[in-house]
Amino acid sequence: xxxxxxxxxxxxxxxxxxxxxEVLQGLxxxxxxxxxxxxxxxxxxxxxxxxxxxAMLKAAIRGQPGFVADPRELQREGGSYTYDTLLSLRRDLGxxxxxxxxxxxxxxxxxxxxxxxxxxxxxxHLVVMRRPGHDAATGPALRKLYLERxxxxxxxxxxxxxxxxxxxxxxxxxxxxxxxxxxxxxxxxPHYLLPEAVWELMAREGLYGPVVSGASSTV
Length: 219
Ligand code: ATP
Ligand code: MG
What we know:
It is a single chain. By secondary structure, the protein is α/β, with parallel strands linked by helices. The protein has a single domain (2-168), classed as 3-Layer(aba) Sandwich (Rossmann fold), CATH 3.40.50. The chain is built from nine helices and six strands, in the order βαβαβαβααβααβαα. The protein has helices at residues 14-26, 50-61, 82-93, 105-109, 117-123, 140-149, 154-158, 177-185, 196-205, and strands at 2-7, 31-36, 67-69, 99-104, 125-129, 165-168. The protein has a six-stranded parallel beta sheet. β1, α1 and β2 (31-36) form a beta-alpha-beta unit. α2 (50-61) packs antiparallel against α9 (196-205) and α3 (82-93) runs parallel beside α5. The radius of gyration is 17 Å and the shape is globular. The protein starts with a strand and ends in a 14-residue tail after the last helix. The chain binds adenosine-5'-triphosphate (ATP) and magnesium ion. Adenosine-5'-triphosphate is lined by residues 7-10, 15-16, 19, 103-104, 106-107, 129, 131, 173, 175-178. Belongs to the NadD family. Catalyzes the reversible adenylation of nicotinate mononucleotide (NaMN) to nicotinic acid adenine dinucleotide (NaAD).
């Protein structure tokens, strides 16, 4: 069973990484594939370039068994639709491999507005990670979908390639890329919100704002 973790990763931070590790271990996944998006379809475009976001992602996961950077959306023109990404993964991994699309609660709330959401749910299971500031309550349509498709654990997910929705308990870290970018723009250090190696890259490249003096020992 393989986890797919899509996002802007602008930049990647501990709020992505710690929950991803807990899902990897909690569901016994073979790997988590981090898939940075190229062209956003439901939100403003990323600030950092695609190569920089990929470089930060690789720096963040280096040495962590089971974590893989998957650049397939960056190699595709046009809007980064999860539906297309899952079709492409199915071509590579086969039709029977259980896939778990990992999303935070904020992304889950908008799930039915995605491109072809029900086909997405046929192609993969949804594993939803709670997130501070985003409660579990959803609208009637999503509640109905959960009543039909809700799952209570990994054994059920293992037994089908996709189609189920599982809420997975993860550490609640109140961190967002927006907050990190805001700090840097204001000349404040984002230290301890993200891996040191990512912060070093950001500082070296002058990403998101001026270099913060004394923020990192190696720059
Ligand atoms: P931004 O503030 O730019 O939107 P972000 O921190 O929300 O960035 P994204 O790249 O938008 O990060 O999110 C990618 C995925 O990671 C989404 O499914 C999102 O819900 C999830 N996610 C991000 N931060 C957290 C967190 N702190 N806890 C749980 N899930 C998270
Ligand atoms: Mg976000």
